[in-house]
Design brief:
Distance between the termini: 45 Å
Largest sheet: none
Oligomer: single chain
Number of strands: 0
Order of helices and strands: H
Radius of gyration: 17 Å
Helix content: over 70%
Shape: rod-shaped
Length: 41
Amino acid sequence: MDKRQLPPEKRRQNLKTALIMLSIALAIYLGYVIKAKVLGV
């Protein structure tokens, strides 16, 4: 593991990016699940 710590603003930016990507992935996944239930596939 890298011994250097990222500066707090960089960590915050990385966390924000990760949360945005996760929410997009969840939205796409939920969209497929809901569509499958509605269409009865």
